[in-house]
Design brief:
By secondary structure, the chain is an all-beta fold. Helix content is about 0%, strand content about 50%. It has no helices and 11 strands. A hairpin with a 6-residue loop joins strand 5 (about 45-50) and strand 6.
Length: about 120
């Protein structure tokens, strides 16, 4: 079970940093992705980072504003979210995948999920 944290209420233009940890599971063995689900909408891919951290991939909607990173020492993946917009409001989930990198944006490739953390951006 993964654990996502760091969500909260922030004003438009503000920043938040989400964290994803996995007690009992070594995240270095996995591609880790963040997905989000806004009220009334389907869950969507946000960003992913490869096992060694050398590869990252961003959804167009967040490219240039969000930054994903990982520290294997702390077994943690971070999502730095800058220049937040009201449309970024959603529950954010981190997930871990053993699948191929080319499928990094495919929700079905992720076998392990956290409960999610709510991010609310006020206008």
């Amino acid at each position: 079970q993964l654990q996502a944290s760091g969500g909260g209420l922030v004003q438009t233009g503000g920043s938040l940093r989400l964290s994803c940890t996995s007690p009992g599971r070594t995240l270095t063995s996995y591609t880790v992705g963040w997905f989000r689900q806004a009220p009334g909408k389907e869950r969507e891919f946000v960003v992913a980072i490869s096992r060694n951290g050398a590869g990252t991939a961003y959804a167009d909607s967040v490219n240039g504003r969000f930054i994903i990173s990982r520290t294997n020492v702390k077994n943690t993946v971070y999502l730095q979210m800058n220049s937040l917009k009201p449309e970024d409001t959603a529950v954010y989930y981190c997930a871990a995948s053993n699948g191929v990198w080319s499928a990094r944006d495919q929700e079905t490739m992720y076998a392990h999920w956290g409960r999610g953390t709510l991010v609310t951006v006020s206008s």
